[in-house]
Write a structure and sequence with these properties.
Elements: H1 2-22, H2 34-44, H3 49-62, H4 66-71, H5 74-81, H6 88-104, H7 112-116, H8 123-134, H9 143-152, H10 162-173, H11 181-194, H12 213-217, E1 233-243, E2 252-256, E3 267-268, E4 271-273, H13 287-299, E5 304-316, E6 320-331, H14 343-356, H15 361-365, E7 371-375, H16 387-396
Parallel strand pairs: 1-6
Antiparallel strand pairs: 1-4, 2-3, 2-7, 5-6
Helix pairs in contact: 1-11, 2-3, 2-8, 8-11, 9-10, 9-11, 13-14
The chain binds a DNA duplex (11 and 11 nucleotides) through residues 42, 44-48, 50-51, 83-89, 92, 119-125, 142-143, 146, 159-162, 198-199, 226, 229-230, 261-264, 315-320, 386-388.
Amino acid sequence: MQESIDSKKYFSTELLEWYERSKRDLPWRRQRDPYYIWVSEIMLQQTRVDTVIPYFQRFIERFPTLNDLAEAPEEEVLKCWEGLGYYSRARNLQAAARQVVERHGGVVPANKADVAALKGVGPYTTGAILSIAFNQPEPAVDGNVMRVLSRYFLIRDDIMKTGTRTLMEELAAGLIPRGRAADFNQALMELGALVCTPKSPQCLVCPVMAHCAARIEGAEDILPVKSKAKPPRPEYRLVALVEGDGEHAGRVLVRRRPDAGLLARMWELPHIPAAAVAGEGAGLPDGPAMDRLAAGLAAAGVAAEPVEAFMDAEHTFSHIHWNLRVFRFREAEDSSVSSGLGAGLAAAEASAAYESDPVAVETTTAEDSAEYRWITPEDMEELAFPNVFLRILKQYAPLWK
DNA sequence: AATGCGGGGAA
DNA sequence: TTCCCAGCATT
């Protein structure tokens, strides 16, 4: 066991020394403001540092203090998060900021129970905030840390299992040098990001290579053990890009998604599921599809005539792969009834769902009081769209007038 | 314990 | 193109 203790001591000491030399200059490392640390940690969930940096800068510029965030309209927070993904992070972050204002006078709490109680803050982020912002000796075990520890200590447990994270937390807690929690936890993650990478780890420049058990065994390439996620299921959808006419000239029809579920409360172009297509890779249906879309729009209070099939788009979420076919429509003279918008496409949605899955129709029928709007390009600056619709609208931009 | 929830970068 | 990355909430 003496061997193990020495190996741990060596690990922590060498790692800290390496971090002092190698740490990156990141925007949220320039001061130790708990609010900044918190925002950065939420953004960094499932997201690389390079992607986060510009978002972090804009976010802090727009919401410099926790109070600013708490008081802002939710749409502005979502707009600031547009393109970053996992939008419940943004909504939870703001809800938690309001929590802090109400329960803690606007000051980020410095104890475990209160931090862990914040919306969107789980075991990892709790540890990250307490250690990085307050230098408290709490472990912060993310994917980087599990990869580093699984290799250095030759741990073959599947890191996708809940129990493995608990094990790693206990191990990580015991490695934190007294008084150095902030630097040590960041050092661990930095090593995982820069040296002990998922593929082709840079062992030759690793500060702890000499005692890395996986390296000694030649097992660094097969660790960590990780069960694979299910592949995303394909989904085919028909999208309507409706150009307004008359009082809606120069505008395009968009709608806001429901309060919960996929892309909650984000804006999008109207779309309905395509009926299931027989055969593998048969692609999207064409002629009848456009008619169904038109019928849906008509029932929604928008009379529109098809112009052309505009483009195809694909987008992969973690669990769904969207195949989209976008049709341009032109609003017809006498439409423009703005009350009653919504019911039509909801019906189309239900009927299409029935074609592809008769059993599921009950679940998709009733709801949908979706909010529809005719927007100008300038309105895009205020409404948050998922990337896939941004791509479509960007393609359309030259024609939008 | 299993599932829902985005998007980007590297091979 | 295809593959890989992976915290938190909910059920």
